[in-house]
Amino acid sequence: MRASQISDVYPDLLSDEVDAVTTSLIRDLGDLYRGSSAPAGLRHSLDAALAESRHSPVHLASAHARRSRFGIRASALMVAAAAALVIGVVGYAVAPAIQQLLATERGVTTLPMQDIAQSQTSNGVTVKLDRAYADVNRIIVAYTIQVPAGFDNSTSGIDGKITLNDAQGSTFPVIEGQGVNGDTPRTIAGLVSFDAESLAPETSRLDLRLKFPDVRAKALQQGASDLTAGAFVFNFILPVGPGRTVTVNKSAIANGVSVTLDRMVVTQSETRMYMTFPASAGIGASDWYADVHVSGAGWDSRHLPAGFSGEMTLGSMFTNRSGEHITTFSGDYRSRHGEWTITVDALSAVDTKAPSNGSGQPKQARVAGPWTFTVSLP
Amino acid sequence: MNSVAGADTLLLKAARSEGDHDEADLIRAAQERPEAFGALYERHVDRVYRYFQLRVGPADAADLTQQVFLKAFRSLPQYKSRGLPFLAWLFRIARNLATDHHRSSMQSPGELLPDVIDATNLASPEEATLQIERLRYLRSLLRDIGPDKRELLAMRFAGGLTSREIAAVMGKSEAAIKKQLNRIIHTLKEQYHES
Hints:
The complex is a heterodimer. By secondary structure, chain A is of the alpha+beta class. Chain A has helices at residues 3-9, 20-32, 40-55, 57-61, 74-82, 94-104; strands at 114-122, 125-134, 138-146, 151-158, 163-166, 174-181, 187-195, 205-219, 227-239, 244-254, 257-266, 270-276, 288-296, 299-300, 317-319, 325-330, 338-350, 364-377. In chain A, the strands form four sheets. Chain A has a five-stranded antiparallel β-sheet, with helices on both faces. By secondary structure, chain B is mainly α. Chain B folds into two domains: 1-110, Orthogonal Bundle (Rna Polymerase Sigma Factor, Chain: A); 115-195, Arc Repressor Mutant, subunit A, CATH 1.10.10. In chain B, 74% of the residues lie in helices and 0% in strands. Chain B is globular. At the A-B interface, helix 2, helix 3, strand 4, strand 6 and strand 17 of A face helix 1, helix 3, helix 4, helix 5 and helix 6 of B.
């Protein structure tokens, strides 16, 4: 590959003044990673499978490929939220950026988000709490941050954890967070979910306090000073959607391991399964999670729900303060009355605390099930 | 089986005839006519396959590549760009599948280290020998930079994703990805230059 071709293919890796060593290195990386093409047999078998799907719409609707699930640990999620993740997508105004962000969260677009529309500006940085939602499972807030001209949103954000408290000072733990770029390089939109399981079932309204502890913006010009906007605090009130708790308290044993399904909580935003099981393989309890699917008459959580799109967040798996393992299913299951079959397919663990095993990857473990429970949703 | 084979031919034919079209047109066409999905498949299959070769090894790369395109095919009616490039969407599916694969198979994720392949397109055997030595040395440097950085390189060079597309896959900003890639190049360059 000639130098001119390299600059065409890898413009993002070459600065204005390209030196021969960099060009040679990038060319060699290109050669090293060139690899081989997909085997012809793969093309044939895939096309056959696609054709079969095309001719069998019923089969297509019951796709046997499992919905993948972001098995995100609560601790990791807090870090993720603290880092104010941004997805590098440009070309959207701020409000559409929030719409785009909401659309990536399965089911969130159908939730009755409340317009909050509070904005504050400090040192040229504007933070807007755009809208929010709450039920007894989850509280979701959507916000935007705009930095002044000369600063870059991509390296701006929140230094420290976003916190959400109620009027009594109780803190709602972060479940997950993500973001997207706005219409200019100066704006980002973010979405953070908090765990609301501590709410009493009869809670109908919440006085909330959302705090961005330390918002900063990086100067675009090298050598120029960065900008510190400090903390932003928003006080707002949210209605709380009710939940239906079904007490199960049943245990099942597979491969010598007992799994107890304590309860499930069904709200508009999601359905949660609360389970307990012993940790093993030297991996801490909080690093274990249950891989679960749920089915009922004519439906199965492994199938794409109507109106959902993409392959984005499908739910969460985390451990609460009581050590219970929670698996959530995004979307509104409230109308699925009758018998549910809840199947724990496997228990898996990724050790996030131990040093790597030498290959640079954390220790992993898995216990195969299934553990099956039958529950009735009135 | 005959109908499947016939459809196979149809899909590949569609791929060839539509290969030059703009990707948005290809996506729209595939959403309207499933047989047009072949063009998208042809455009991206090698990139996804190469990525899986590095993530899970050659034994499972083909199977997972097939799963990516089956999932994409099934979800395509619901796919809307919303600024997320199609290739980035495919790689999100691919990363999720690779993670699930490692969990379910209890295998450690791949080292994300490419194998050195003979440089048969060079003018002389001497030139080819020198290049292979350089590539082997470069591969040894890659061992030291950590799996996260190797994954970035795998997506950029094996997957052929742009910084913007990698940013969309990883949930980070384009500027952050560019900065990370440039840091990696800079780090490698210092040692590579010394060689």
